[in-house]
Structures are given as structure tokens and as C-alpha cells.
Amino acid sequence: MNGAELIQLMISFMDDEVINEPFAYQLLNLAKNKIEASRMWVKLRKFKSDYSFSSSDGYNDFKTLPDDFLMTFGDKPLKLISGSEVEELGEVPMDDRDQYRDDPGVFYIYHNTSQFAILGGQSRSYNGTLYYIAETEEIDAGVTWIFPKFSHPLLVIEALIIHRGQVDFDEINARMTREGYGTKDEMEKVLNNWDAQLQTRAQRGRVKKDPFARNSNVDSSNKIYTGRRA
After folding, report:
1. How many CB atoms are closer than 10 A to CB 190?
2. Short-list 223, 219, 214, 222, CA closest to 80
3. Block mean pLDDT (10 aa), the chain, length 230
4. Where are the alpha helices (DSSP H) in the chain?
5. CB within 8 A of 166, min separation 6: which ones?
6. pTM recorded for the entire structure
7. What is the DSSP string of 70-86?
8. CB proximity list for 131: less than 8 A, separation 6 or greater
9. Is 177 helix (H, G, I), strand (E, B) or coil?
10. Predicted local confidence at residue 167, as pLDDT
């Protein structure tokens, strides 16, 4: 459902009460942002793979975050790639950059300037891939929310709760049930279950192999991470 269709559904839930259109879109986008911020949705996961790092890069050599960046996801969201070698870097707080400036395997984000930098330096050039949660396009007349169609009425119920307050929650839920959409709680359960299944199915496809064989920084014979780049 695009924005115009969502507003028509909103009006029907309000017994055809007139609502200012710009205000209605503000409510829908507040609802969208609330839902998207509730968990690390698979649908919002993206990557940017055109970063380059040289051996001279230091902890003040910044790379620009993607325009739609919200936050990283996963324990090691930055991957440095050189040939068949893949080094995974974890994120540390910006205010810890001085403590970690000579330590390999980590990076930090300077959110104020939408940039990031790796720490510890490296002995060669790498290509880099950053995995992150993306911000979605604001809902407008011709814009359709990227989540599955079955979840779109949830935007309307969230928007109406923001607009009218919790006092009308039962009334709105009852109207949704009569219209065949189910209650808000049931819709949230379905949406969360859908996301959980996406994560589970992706995990099943992983090839079972020795993770230590993927990184030359690890001594495969005794499985000890050396903490040094080759």
C-alpha cells in the first residue's frame, strides 16, 4: 500500500473523520520509524563494498558512511578483504579510540560527521565492506513501505495510537478486527515471526568449515588468534 492508500485506510478506521494530509504523513512516518527501530530487521540490512584502505591509513583517516546509514549490525560489521583473506573488525566507542589506536581488529564511528576509521593500521591495502541497518524512504503519496504488504495496516494502527493516544487502543483494535486485519498484537507477532524465519533460513545456508582457515591471522594448528596481520 502506498501512502495515499494508507491514509484512506486511516480515515476508514476513524469513521471517515477528516484528517490533514501532511499531518497524516507525519504520523505514518513516526509509526514507520518506531517499528523499524524495534529490532534489527533483516529487511533493513544492507552493505557497502566500495571502500579502500591503504597501509598508511591511521585512526584519523576517515571513510564516509552510507547516506542511509542508521547503525551497524553483527559483532564484526566491517570486513577487510585482500585476495582470499578476510579480516573481520568489531566496533568500539569513539571515546575509546585512543586506547585502541594501535590495536588491530577494531574500528570506530564518528557519528557527528557520519564517518568511520579503522584502528591499529595494516601492512597492506584492503578493500572493505561495511554491513549496516539502513534508513528507509519516508512515506508519501506514491511511496510504498518496503516491508511486506501484510504488515502495512500496522502502520495505520501505530499512527492512530500516536494521534489519539492509548485511550482509543481497544476501539481501534476492534475496528481492525472487523475489517479483517486482526489486532495490533497479532500483526506484530506475525511480523516478528517473519523476520525470525528470514534469519533462521539464512543461517541454515552457511557452509560448515573451519573458521580459522579463513584468516591468516589465526594459527590453525592450535586455534589461537595471533592478533597480528600478515
Report:
1. 15
2. 214
3. 94 84 96 95 97 87 96 95 91 92 90 94 86 97 96 92 70 64 83 94 69 46 39
4. 3-13, 21-36, 97-100, 152-164, 169-179, 184-204
5. none
6. 0.80
7. EEE-SS--EEEEETTEE
8. 45, 46, 47, 72, 73, 74, 77, 78, 79
9. helix
10. 52
Measured distance CA(9)–CA(184) in Å, rounded: 15
Q: Is 147 exposed, middle or buried (0-12, 13-18, 19+ CB in 10 A)?
A: buried
- Residue corresponding to grid cell 485511550: 167
CB distance 28 to 155 below 8 Å: yes
Q: What is the pLDDT of residue 57?
A: 84
The gap between the terminal CA atoms of the chain, to the nearest Å, is 52
Residue 134 CB-density burial (10 A; 0-12 exposed, 13-18 middle, 19+ buried) = buried
Q: What is the pLDDT of residue 178?
A: 63
Which residues share a beta bridge with 225?
Answer: 218
Q: Are 41 and 191 in contact (CB under 8 A)?
A: no
Q: Are 155 and 143 in contact (CB under 8 A)?
A: no
* Residue in 132, 133, 103, 97 with CA at minimum distance from that of residue 117: 97
Query: What's residue 55's pLDDT?
Result: 82
